[in-house]
Structure formats: C-alpha cells, structure tokens
Amino acid sequence: MIWLNQIINGVLLGGYYALIACGLSLMFGVMNIINLAHGDLAVLGAFLVWLICEHTGISPFIAFIAVLPTMAALGWVLQRAILDRSLRSGILVPILSTFGLAIVIENLLFSQFGADSRSLASVMGSLSYDSWALTSQIYIGKLAVLIFAVAVLLLLGLHVFLKRTALGRAIRATSEDPDTAELVGINARAVYATSAAIAVSTVAIAGLFLGMRASFAPYAGPAQLIFAFEAVVIGGSGSLWGTLVGGIVLGIAQNIGAQINPNWFLLAGHLTFLAVLIGRIFLRELLAHGMIPALLGQRS
Amino acid sequence: MGGEFAPAPAEEPILAGVGVVKRFGALVVLDKVDFAVASNEAIGIVGPNGAGKTTLLNVLSGASQPSQGTVRFRNIDVTNAGAAQHCRLGIARSHQIPRPFGGMTVFENTFVAATAGGNRKGRDAYERCIEALELCAMLGHANRRAETLGLLDRKRLELARALATDPVVLLLDEIGGGLTDGEAGQLVETIRELRRRGIAIVWIEHIVHVLLQVVERLVCLDGGRVIADGRPEAVMADPAVIGAYLGQGVA
Questions:
Q1: Is A173 close to B119, i.e. CB distance below 8 A?
Q2: Which of B115, B129, B147, B170 to mutate to test the interface with A (most CBs of A within 10 A)?
Q3: Which residues are within 8 A (CB) of A63 and not within 5 positions of it... i.e. 6 or more apart?
Q4: Least confident of A91-100, A284-293, B195-204
Q5: Domains of chain A by residue range
Q6: Residue-level pLDDT at A268
Q7: CB-based contact, B168 to chain A, within 8 Å
C-alpha cells in the first residue's frame, strides 16, 4: 500500500514537472532555443507572487493575476531584445545568452531578497497540507491534485490552441521552417515573440506552484531547470504531452527511490533520465545498424 | 529585335526590380538588373545555372535584400519590407525544391497561408483553400500529412499554398523540373487557368518548351545580367542567348 501511495504521489508530482517542462519544450520546439534561464524565470515568478502577497496579504492566486501578464511581457521583451539577436549567430550563442541571463536573474534576486528561503505556505491557508485520506496509508494532497489538474488543463489548452487557432498554426508552421513561413505571410519574429511570451507565462504558473508546494531561494532555478530538462528528454523533446509523460515517469522514479532510501529521491530521478537517454540512443543505433554494432557502439 | 532589349511594357509595372545588385562577398550574382512585370503578364526567365535567376526571385519576393537597387510593388518601395510583407501585398513564390510544412496536413499548409498571407478568416479562408487545392488537383489529399507526399504532389501543394495567399504576382522557381510530359502538361493547364484569373506569372524554367506554352515574354539572364528580353521567339533566336544558354550543346 505504501508503494501505491508513492506511485500516486509520483504521478501527481509529475504534473508539476510537466508545468515547468512545457515552456522549455515550447521554446525548444518553436525557436530551437534551449533556455538555461528557464528555472530561474520560474523562481522569479515565485518571488514576484511572494512579494505581492507579503505586502498585501492577499491570496497567491490573486497576486498571480498581476504576475502572469508581467511574466508574459518579460518573455516577449526577452525574445525581441536578446534571443532574436542571438539566434542569428548560430546555435551556441542562444544557449550562452540564456546562461548569462540565468546568472543575471539569480544575482538580481539575491541582491534584492538575500539568501533566505521563502515560501508561500503562510499566505495560502491550509491548502499546503490539506489532503484526502483514501485509506490509512494512501494520502493525496489537495495542492498536488490542483497542480496536476492545472497541468493537464494547460497542456490541453496549448494543444487546442496550436491545433485550432490561426496563431497556433502560424507557430507550428514557423517552428518547422521560419523562412518558408515568411513566404506565406507569417511574421516569424512576431511568432517567436508571442511563443516566448506564452512559454514564460507557463513558467510563471510553474513558479506560482513552486512557491506553494516548496520553499525557494534566489539560486533555486538550476535545480528546477534540471527537472524540466529531464521531463522533456524522457517524454521526447518537442512534444507537449510528452512533457506530462516524462514528468510522471520522473515523479514516480523519485518517489519510489525515496521510499527505498530517503536520500535516493533525486538520484533515482537522474538515473531514470540517464537510462531513458541511453536506451533511446541504443534503440536508434539498433534500428539503424542492427544488434551487434549497436551493442559494440560501432557505426558502420 | 536582335540583341536589343525589348521596350518596357507599356502598362504600369505591378512588380519591378530597378538596378538590382546582389553581392555575396566578392561574388556579384545580380549586376544592375532591371526587371518589371505588368499585371496579368506572364514572363519566363531562362539562363544557364548560376545566372542569378533564383536570386532575382529571392529579391523580388523579399526573402533577401539587394545590395543595391530597389524593389517596387505598385510603385511603392518595398525593398526592405521583408518576405512576410511581400506576401501580404500579393507577391507569392514557390521553391524549386518544395518546402511543405511536413508535420501539418495538406489543408493546414494552405490554411496557414490563407490566414497569414491572404489575411482571410474562418469560412472565407476555408473556401479559398478548397479552391486552391481543387485547382492544383490536391483536394483528394487534403487531410494527408504533407511529409507523406511524393515529389509531384509536393510541387502541387507548393503551388496551392502560394495560391491560398491570394497573389497578384506569382513567382515560380522551376516548378516543372523532374516532371513527366503528362504531369508538366497538367501544370501548364493549371498555370494558364491562373492567368485567366488575372494573376501575373514570373516563371523560371529550364524546360523551355513547357515555358513557351504559357509565357508571352522571355527574359534571359547570364552572369547576373539581362542579356535578352522580349518575345520568346526573338529571345530564343538571339545569338547572345544561344551562345550563353543553349550554346554549350548547340553551337
């Protein structure tokens, strides 16, 4: 029973990972940018919500209404001011510029808020610890269910948006071939800026829940980035629903690892990520070259 | 007419390149090219490989900017307007090697063009796409993913997608290449139909006999310069053209 509890909570944790991973996946899928500042943007979102709550005492959900458009605008400006320029200089420069951005965000947060860990738990009533007891051993946190539900709704919304709306189709066309997209009348720069705004908005949602479910500090971003990155890779890069699958696999692995040994929470997640990565490379070699060369790592 | 250039069309040109120079480093690909197409005119562009034909199309469609010179659409300077803006003004082009959006369906390929380039919405965009697909004999494939299409269907989709943007000028880059005679014949029929609908055509093609079934004017480029411009039979008989273009095999 305790294992089932861990698996259920692993699935729900996967919802949070999907939330933080889908923006990373979107930016990679549309603009081919691996945004190393992704986790730091989530932490920035959490700090913005915390700042408003701290000064006004209002619910983080209400504070978030103000944070969301701010983060969307930030994404738009980021694309226009920094990433567009860096994209013209090959594949490495965007990675370096987002790495630089990550350092800037971390140190700005540190200079403003100091090194203390913060949490939104104090302004959200009992939601941080409320749970439903299904049996004596299976507890499901209400916040975890809420996060999972928001993740599924967000992915569903993005899916419908990309499939059914004119802007969504323009984003898909541009992600496949920006030059040809321009030739059929799509302003690729505008599509990129819009996609960045959407991606950073999803990061803001992840940041809100990061602040609600755990504590965060100025340098907490890179850890979140790694979770997001692992969920994207496990689920298959560029696929939105894949981020949910990847997030769930990661969440289950971490919870089962922690059940075996409390110190194995992170380790189990990382090992699962590595196993999937190696397995996928092996499978590709196997399909391309056959069993023996795949086993030996030969290419001919 | 000989080696002289034909007089510019009497009608106001709809799309014109004036003194277009395009350099890539030290290489001069287009060397002061003057080119104009009047509304409802059909022009063929011929010339040996490396003559600058595709580069000229790139400049006219806004995909690349000339090093010198201007591009004018209805007498407005659009030199630096960018490809998306050119498309929305009514300048559409197709690639020599078709570039469909492979992960989208055939219909979505045209729909994204109709909404973005043609600035149409909903029902209106839908009907425009159906019409364009029907014209290019692609309606039966509307729900297939574009990456599953063969070369002929990719070429047809390339044309249908360009049409969905509602062009007044259509720039075609070797759309007949690699097709059988029968397939090329269908293509000629389609493009004639487009002319009847009032769309001006600029068509690069190596298969001259296919080209001559549609165009009433030929422009020959060689080494980035216009070496002949006029009625097809006059251009084809021009010694400079025979020397530069047909010369390798004929002379």
A1: no
A2: B115
A3: A48, A49, A52, A53, A56
A4: A284-293
A5: 2-296
A6: 94
A7: no
DSSP state of B194: H
Mean residue pLDDT across chain A: 91
Lowest average pLDDT, out of A15-24, A182-191, A286-295, B194-203, goes to A286-295
pLDDT computed for residue A283 by the predictor: 87
Instruction: Please check whether residue B176 is in contact with residue B170, taking contact to mean a CB–CB distance below 8 angstroms.
Output: no
pLDDT confidence of residue B4: 45
Q: What is the pLDDT of residues B50-67, one digit of tens each?
A: 889 999 999 999 999 999
Contact: A184, B165; criterion CB under 8 Å: yes
Out of A169, A176, A184, whose CB is closest to B161?
A184
Q: B97-116: per-residue pLDDT in tens?
A: 899 999 999 999 999 999 99
Pick the CATH number of A2-296 from 2.60.40, 3.30.310, 1.10.3470, 1.10.8: 1.10.3470
**Residue A207 near residue A29, CB atoms below 8 Å:** no
Nearest residue to B167 via CA among B90, B67, B54? B90
Choose among A170, A176, A186: nearest Cβ to B103: A176
Domains defined for chain B, CATH in brackets? 1-90+167-251 (3.40.50.300), 100-163 (no CATH)
Specify whether the CB–CB gap between B184 and B191 falls below 8 A. no
pLDDT tens digits for range B139-178: 999 999 999 999 889 999 999 999 999 999 999 998 888 8
Angle, in degrees to the nearest 10, between helices A142-164 and A188-213: 170
Of the pLDDT bands very low, low, confident and very high (cuts 50, 70, 90), residue B8 is: very low
A-contacting residues of B 98-157, CB under 8 Å?
99, 101-104, 108-109, 111-113, 115-119, 121
Contact A169 B118 (CB under 8 A): no
- Quick check: A150 and A205 in contact, CB under 8 A? yes
* DSSP, res B97: S
Interatomic CA distance for residues B56 and B222, integer angstroms = 12
Are B113 and A177 an interchain contact pair (Cβ–Cβ within 8 Å)? no
How far away is chain A from the Cα of B53, in angstroms, using its nearest Cα?
A: 18
**Residue A140 CB neighbour total at 10 angstroms:** 15
